[in-house]
Design the sequence.
């Protein structure tokens, strides 16, 4: 069994770029699109300043990537939400500070190696991401971590267990927002985590 602090105790975080990838064994989180992104696109994505990718490598064998993720600056758009959802988010923010959108970090890609999954490392990683974006040296305000979560049970449960809420309470609301026909499958769900929940405890 792996403890909650596995990444801090046994791994070191690096930027994920082609130089690092060249030193590592192929990384697979079991999702072909994500694996392909980390292997072939992450470096260029970062150079185009669209999102920065990071990985944790095992200290005992740095050729092993335990998990990888990509962060981008983003926002949670409240203006276009249905009234009931607008109200839900508005409850989190003092009235005089209400905005039409709130600053966020988007965890746009995230995966744990298939050899390390189901041991609490994904949770460990998400805790680290939340704390990292809240650090005093972060240059801009950031109230939320947002994700476009794969719409499958395991991934949804992972984000739910890590305190993420659905931006839209139903898939139909989300399809309407995205202008999707009802019969089309919703491949991802927009979710957010309110960093104030952690800030209150710090
Ligand atoms: C989703 C994903 C990131 C989760 O990573 P993970 O390391 O498996 O996550 P965790 O281990 O923290 O949690 C997953 C399960 O392990 C269990 N677990 C947590 N700590 C544990 C421990 N110490 N020992 C054993 N099991 C543990 C959790 O209870 C959870 O169980 P559940 O799914 O039955 O509720 C990973 O499965 C993955 O990379 N999937 C493919 C890519 C993907 O979907 N990425 C998200 C894109 S939006």
Sequence:
């Amino acid at each position: 069994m792996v403890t909650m602090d596995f990444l801090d105790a046994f791994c070191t975080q690096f930027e994920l770029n082609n130089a690092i990838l060249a030193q590592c064994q192929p990384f697979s989180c079991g999702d072909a699109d994500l694996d392909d992104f980390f292997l072939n696109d992450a470096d260029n994505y970062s150079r185009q300043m669209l999102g920065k990718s990071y990985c944790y490598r095992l200290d005992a064998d740095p050729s092993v990537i335990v998990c990888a993720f990509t962060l981008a600056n983003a926002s949670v758009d409240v203006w276009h939400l249905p009234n009931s959802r607008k109200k839900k988010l508005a409850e989190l923010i003092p009235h005089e500070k209400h905005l039409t959108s709130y600053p966020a970090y988007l965890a746009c890609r995230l995966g744990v190696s298939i050899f390390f999954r189901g041991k609490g490392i994904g949770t460990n990683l998400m805790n680290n991401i939340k704390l990292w974006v809240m650090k005093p040296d972060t240059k801009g305000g950031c109230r939320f971590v947002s994700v476009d979560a794969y719409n499958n049970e395991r991934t949804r449960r992972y984000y739910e267990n890590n305190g993420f809420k659905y931006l839209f309470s139903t898939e139909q609301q989300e399809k309407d927002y995205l202008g999707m026909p009802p019969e089309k499958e919703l491949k991802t769900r927009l979710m957010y985590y309110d960093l104030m929940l952690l800030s209150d405890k710090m």
About this structure: The first helix runs from residue 6 to 10. The domain at 6-199 is CATH 3.40.630.30 (Aminopeptidase).
